[in-house]
Each structure stands twice: as C-alpha cells, then as structure tokens.
Amino acid sequence: MAVQINPSILSADFARLADEAKAVEGADFLHVDVMDNHFVPNLTLGVPVVESLARATDTPLDCHLMIEAPDRWAPQYVEAGASSVTFHVEAAAAPVRLAREIRAKGARASMALKPATPIEPYEDLLPELDMLLIMTVEPGFGGQAFLDIMLPKIRRTRELISKHGLQLWLQVDGGVSAATIERCAEAGADVFVAGSAVYGAEDPAEAVRALRKQAEGVTKTAAWACDH
Question: Is 38 annotated as belonging to a binding site?
Fold first, then answer.
C-alpha cells in the first residue's frame, strides 16, 4: 500500500488557508480538523470553511470530525466537498449506518478511535470502512507529544486488517514528525497526519516529501507490508 502524507491545517495560518493549501500541493490529502467544543475542548471550523477550501484547492480533503452527533453532521461534510470523512466511534450512535451513508454520498468512510478506546470490539465493523484512524494523542489540540503507548494498538489493528484481507488504510494522527513517523510505519500505519512537522517547517512541501521518504523507507521492509 502506498504511503500517504496528509498535512493538518490545524497548524496552518487560518487567515491564509487557500495559500496554506497551495503550499503543500504534493500532499495526498489535506487533513481538516473539525472541533465543536463539546466532544473536545476546542473550537475550529465547520461546513462553510470546508466548502470554501474545497473550491480553493485541488488536493482532496480528509475531514476529521471531533464532534458530537456525527450521525447528523457527517453527511453535510461530504456535500461540502470532503473526499474522506472520519467520525469518532465514541460519538457515533450508529457507526455502520453512518459509514454506509458517507460511502453512499460518494466519500471514503473512516472511523477514529481515541487513545483509550480499544480496537478489538470493532473488528466486525472494519469491512464497512475505507480507513481507520488511531489517535496517537488525545484529540483536541495540535502540537502534542506522540504517545508511544499507541504503537502496540497500531500493530494489533494492522493484524486485524490483514486477518480479514481488507484494503483498509490505517491512519495515525498526533505528534507525527521526523522523529516518530518511522515507528508508526513499522507498526503498520500507511497514512500519516502531520501538522506542526509540516506547517512549522521553513518549506512545508519539502517537509511532506521528507516525511514520505522516511515512511516509504521503513514500509519497504516492514513485516506487515511484506505480507501483502
């Protein structure tokens, strides 16, 4: 599976989002963190900004909904132009129905798990998804330190994906940088959200290329990748 780097605009300049999107045009997706100040203690942006951003860039949008009632709101983000929509299983009332609705509207359906949420109870849901997001920090704020204790969870998740023979992307989000991306790739992640590591760099586009090269180098020899 190809390595993907998704810069998080949470670390970008919100007054210049169109320019910040152009600065990382070599990225696979733009990661858009939607927070409602209820599910997480922070407030960011919503549907109107996603609509505007979708018009301003050719890079597909990967919307991560850290919100309550995603069953109600997630479909609106597909309509706003998101190519991938991630909801939190902790907040979803009917995750299978929601994943199917997101897919039916034409986007990739993704489910996120907070650090304390185990993957095992959701094994039967995996075929309904296009991507699974393992949070490697507590959701809500950018710039946090990577939680190494999530690496075994990433490995267990990759094992479940392989067990069922699924073409499911495995994304990690939180503290991903040059210092941590190789460990994530070795554990089984193939989609990497990077905020400060990209937008805090002097050249964001070069930061994307460098992170991709690091992850690809590890993935070529990782045991999980060699099984495919």
Answer: no
What pTM did the predictor assign? 0.95
pLDDT of residue 227: 63
Positions marked catalytic: 33, 173
Bridge partners, residue 53, by sequence: none
Say if residue 174 carries a ligand binding annotation: yes
Consult the annotation and say whether 141 binds a ligand. Answer: yes
